[in-house]
Amino acid sequence: MKLAADFLDEMKRNESRGRCLHFERGKRCNEIISAHSIQKSNQLGEIVEAGHVYRITAAITNSLDENWRPAPKKIGWKKASTFSGFCKYHDNEVFKPIDSYPLEPNLEQVALYAYRCMCREYFAKENAATTLKNFINNSALLPEQKIFLESSFIGHSLGFQRLQHHKKYFDAALLSKRYGEFEFLTLTSNSPWHLQLSGVLYPDFDFLGGSLQDLADFTLPLDFITFFTAPLAQGWSFTFCWHASSNSSSVALARSLASAVNRGTSLQDALLRFSFSCCENHAFRITWWDSLPASAKEAILGRVALMVDPEAPVPSDYLAKGLDDIADWEIENIVTTLATTP
Known about the structure:
By secondary structure, the chain is of the alpha+beta class. It is 42% helix and 17% strand. The strands form 3 sheets. A 6-stranded antiparallel beta sheet has the order 9-6-7-8-5-10, with helices on both faces. The radius of gyration is 19 Å and the shape is globular.
């Protein structure tokens, strides 16, 4: 579809206009690079096969194509998860404690992973708002397409404003090395590693289906949480991390996971359900996907389609139900700053 292709070209042009989002950006930021939001060697390198990984892509362009359906797409592992959001100096120096060493985890490492998650979303949201602003007056748009893109522009612009609010907290904490302002919940595993991800979320419902905050309320800042996978010295980890300014909903989300597990929910099922419901910045092993039964693939793709449909209401139990018995990993240990753990 030409219209979708034109929109994608405009998006790529904006994405190519890199800038350093680091809190100390300045004269040293003279070489913008294509930075990985998911580590290339230590993470994508663990799941790459024949130079590729799978990703399920759900972009704004999909809404311009009535025939679009979610499907895994092969992508070169060196290009997966990249964004032009840091200069070479800051990407190499600031993130050295996480790119050169396995996650322990300690507060500095977790804060740096969270910062990278947030900056990647900041970069993507700003680009989307700019692209939509430049494209909504395209003469080839049908009336209903123009209305949809105008609504999307408003949503992305407001979303970018929310990210600006949270970036100030992250910037100030990292600038002063106040890593104790961050809270985290890390779950570790020695099982085979098939899925890598890095993302952010404004928690709306918890793992029991309870309401956390109203995303339609723009009168107050929303609580904000990051999440990511990371390599350990032995095995791998899945971490939720947030700044203390977002404690209300983020702590409640983490504790609801504990409650759900105590009531019999499988922890690995909950993490996989969360991953495909909440994160578009992911990559997974091709043979893992190919080995899944058709029913599991249909369930995952159906969940992705539901969560990206702008006209479908988000079910309150989307983190409580669905995608069971698909994950083939086990969680062995938990490390957290919280008093209560799953």
